[in-house]
Amino acid sequence: MSVFLIFSANALTFVRWHLLLKAIDINIRLMTTLRLGFMGFLFGFVAPGQLGGDVFKAVFIAREQRKRKLAAIASILIDRLCGLYGLLLVTAAGLLVTGLAARHAFVNIVANATYACAIIGGFGIAVILTPGATRSRIALSATNIPAIGRAVRRLFRATELFQQRKLVLLQIGLLSLIVHLLVAIGLFAAARGIYSDSPGIEDHLVISPIAGVAGALPLFPGGAGSYEAAVDVLYDLFSPPTVAGRGVVVGLLYRFATIIVASVGLVFYWTGRREVSDVLQQVRAETELCPPGEQLKSQYDITV
User: Fold this and answer.
1) What is the pLDDT of residues 247-288, one digit of tens each?
2) Who's near 294: CB < 8 A, 6+ residues apart?
3) Quick one: three-class SS letters along the chain?
4) Does 50 or 256 have the greater pLDDT score?
5) Is the pTM of this model over 0.90?
6) Is residue 63 within 8 Å of residue 151, measured between CB atoms?
7) Phi first, then psi: what are they for 48, rounded to 5°?
8) CA separation (Å) from 228 to 80, 254, 264, 286?
9) Are the CB atoms for 186 and 68 separated by under 8 Å?
10) Neighbour count for residue 188 (Cβ, 10 Å)
11) How far are the Cα atoms of 9, 19, 64, 191, 198 from residue 3, in angstroms, in the given order?
């Protein structure tokens, strides 16, 4: 059950990215998005945090969407921001409903930071989605910055597309919440599979997202180690003083589930390994042959 829930959560993140691509008028098949998503997840195990997977997806999507390269790459960043904000909302809801902040000083600090970030993030989203926000005096001044002004203008155009597709944004927001709920329930199911007295599901609504943030930090490949350490620390906070060390075991069970998800990416990799090799050689050749200034120019001299 735990593996199924965590697999479903990761698959939904790829569907969310697909909706984002559609929202900015990038026509791409769902199967292609899933293929890139699973392979990106696989490559996330060879670079710190989730950076490797995002770079891999950026290279591939830019190759497939040459005329709208910047918009396609920006969708990966926007997808990450949507996931992060969903993470904040799930954590805030868990803290508010359970009142866990009052039980632990450390959790209280995390709770205050979570509430503040959720409010600031919500305000920022509201401003960005307000019609005319990208045409304000401050926004227009950003488009005149040397070297990046043209890229900023094109990102603003992509933002204006989102402003016209609020229903899609609502769907993306709901998917973000569902993803983090599934991960929390999956972690709870893994814990209850071996420990009958593990922290409750309401505790996992706080443990899972906080540990997820730790796992996303660019410290170790795929977040390995940092995620398990965070789960262990949080389990010690929510368990009786006589019980310790179970968080590492539960974190490792979660890691096993993510490896199963990555194995799907391995299948896609082997079936398209020639294409993967071609893309990596192309990136290496462009890096060696083009001066840094020309790389920057070619990267942004595109149509959104």
Assistant:
1) 888 888 888 888 888 888 888 878 777 776 766 565 455 445
2) none
3) CHHHHHHHHHHHHHHHHHHHHHHCCCCCCHHHHHHHHHHHHHHHHHCECCHHHHHHHHHHHHHHCHHHHHHHHHHHHHHHHHHHHHHHHHHHHHHHHHCHHHCCHHHHHHHHHHHHHHHHHHHHHHHHCCCCHHHCHHHHHHCCCCCCHHHHHHHHHHHHHHHCCHHHHHHHHHHHHHHHHHHHHHHHHHHHHHCCCCCCHHHHHHHHHHHHHHHHCCCCECCCCHHHHHHHHHHHHHCCCCCCCHHHHHHHHHHHHHHHHHHHHHHHHHHCHHHHHHHHHHHHHHHHHCCHHHHHHHHHCCCC
4) 256
5) no
6) no
7) -55, 140
8) 21, 9, 23, 38
9) no
10) 23
11) 10, 25, 32, 12, 18
- The residues with which 48 forms a beta bridge, in sequence order, are 221
Amino acid (1-letter code) at residue 25: D
Q: Using an 8 Å Cβ cutoff, are 158 and 304 in contact?
A: yes
Q: Has residue 136 got a pLDDT over 90?
A: no
Other Cβ atoms closer than 10 A to 63: 15
